[in-house]
Write a structure and sequence with these properties.
There is one protein chain. By secondary structure, the protein is mainly alpha-helical. Helix content is about 80%, strand content about 0%. The chain has 11 helices and no strands.
Length: about 190
């Protein structure tokens, strides 16, 4: 907070850095306060809108997530990350799965080799009960980038298909490289207890 800043960009970067330090420390509420203050000063800054939405999601403020990402998409309609983030939130946290999938598909058209967007497509298909399509997209996402959260999703789809040994193999492979990933650990615990 005491860093000397001159330009608008520097002010934003300092506030983002402060919020990130708080997020890394697990204090999402304080990060939210910092970002809200920054957005009061710079209401349409795309990076602040995105960061605020991500922190709001951690605080279960889905209405804020939707508001900030919708505004960001209005400002930058070709922002694949914003389209994916809003789409994934709708798919994962609301009953508006079809609406979320439409946003994710727009993101995928802009960035077809992004593993996280491909993961979102797969998760949307899973939520719609289309397990084979879900598996196809999630396997492609894992090819593009082995990641513990993608592995959690792929394993859950395989588990739902009755392919429990394959699901366990996917999870265990990723647990070796990411033994503390909360999403992966929660998925394994929830499904195997």
């Amino acid at each position: 907070a005491d860093l000397p800043v001159v330009t608008r960009e520097q002010r934003i970067q300092v506030q983002q850095a402060e919020a990130q330090v708080l997020r890394d420390a697990g204090d999402n509420a304080a990060a939210y306060t910092v970002l809200a203050s920054a957005l009061d000063q710079f209401p349409d800054d795309p990076d602040l809108l995105y960061d605020m939405a991500m922190v709001a999601e951690k605080l279960d403020q889905i209405d804020v997530v939707e508001q900030k990402l919708t505004r960001l998409i209005e400002l930058k309609p070709a922002n694949a990350h914003a389209l994916n983030a809003l789409g994934y939130t709708l798919v994962d946290r609301t009953p508006r799965v079809a609406e979320g999938l439409a946003l994710i598909e727009r993101a995928l058209a802009l960035s077809p080799d992004d593993p996280f967007i491909r993961d979102s497509v797969g998760w949307a298909h899973y939520r719609m009960g289309r397990l084979d399509d879900a598996e196809k997209h999630l396997r492609r996402a894992m090819e593009l980038r082995p990641d513990p959260e993608i592995a959690a999703h792929l394993g859950e789809v395989l588990w739902a298909k009755g392919e429990r040994t394959q699901a366990q193999d996917v999870w265990q492979t990723q647990l070796k490289s990411s033994p503390d990933n909360a999403v992966l650990l929660e998925t394994v615990r929830r499904l195997t207890r």
